[in-house]
Design a protein that fits this description.
- By secondary structure, this protein is of the alpha+beta class.
- It has one domain: NADH Oxidase (3-Layer(aba) Sandwich).
- Helices cover 40% and strands 13% of the residues.
- α2 packs across α7.
- The N and C termini lie far apart (52 Å).
- The structure holds flavin mononucleotide.
- The site of flavin mononucleotide has 12 residues, from β3.
């Protein structure tokens, strides 16, 4: 089944209505085109020096998701949702800044000499960082794009659940993920078949230090 579902167009509703959904209609499907739209929109997220070090392993095929199930602690949403995106952080993603800047030049967004200097400097700076720091930077970018995947899906009437409950070592091994791609999280995307669990938030005054007060 893949009918058109109502879009949510205003930002506040998208944010307020997004909840982690763990029950999905197993008969619902999401098209490749819809997934591409969600991922392309999510890729508008900011990233460190615009290196866009996120990569997406899309588990669209149900049989493939059945293989993922035991790796994801048998969380049933992996098979019942319509797709699962494994967001990966490419700790060598900065090496593609030249390609990114080429696109910017083609689009007239950047002069050629600036693009080349920027790329050279970025590769030099990021290349000089420890592997741990490179990973940390890519993981932050991965978190940002993950959030945008969930909001973009929600605005299209789909629900999601982010999952950190999976065996990253087994994921990498089973699906041949190269060493420089570090799993960030899995995100199930589908059509809700049950309500989400309501969740509470800490009051703002318990998480905010105005001008550093209360630290
Ligand atoms: C990094 C991360 C990992 C998570 N891992 C899981 C998971 O493995 N399984 C699950 O059911 N929910 C998981 N969640 C969902 C959280 O439980 C949920 O976001 C939180 O309880 C707040 O609820 P809400 O998303 O409905 O607002 C995860 C969320 C995040 C951000």
């Amino acid at each position: 089944m893949s009918e058109t579902i109502a879009r949510i167009t205003d930002y506040a509703s998208v944010v307020r209505e997004r909840h982690s959904v763990r029950q999905y209609d197993p008969n619902w499907t999401i098209s490749e085109a819809e997934l591409k739209e969600i991922l392309a929109e999510a890729s508008l997220a900011p990233s460190s020096s615009n290196t866009q070090s996120w990569r997406f392993f899309v588990f669209h095929d149900k049989e493939l998701r059945k293989k993922l199930l035991p790796i994801a602690n048998n969380q049933q949403q992996v098979v019942d949702a319509s797709a699962v995106v494994a967001v990966l952080a490419d700790r060598e993603g900065f090496k593609r800044i030249g390609r990114i800047n080429d696109i910017a030049v083609e689009k007239g967004l950047m002069p050629r000499d600036f693009a080349d200097q920027y790329a050279e400097r970025t590769v030099k700076i990021y290349g000089g960082l420890s592997q741990e720091k490179q990973t940390q930077i890519a993981l932050v970018d991965g978190g940002l794009v993950s959030m945008q995947i969930m909001l973009s899906a929600k605005s299209r009437g789909f629900d999601t659940v982010p999952m950190g409950g999976f065996d990253a070592a087994r994921l990498v091994e089973e699906f041949g993920i190269p060493d420089h791609l570090v799993p960030v999280m899995l995100i199930a995307i589908g059509r809700a078949a049950g309500p989400s669990r309501p969740t509470a938030r800490l009051p703002l005054e318990e998480i905010t230090y105005w001008n550093g007060e209360g630290l």
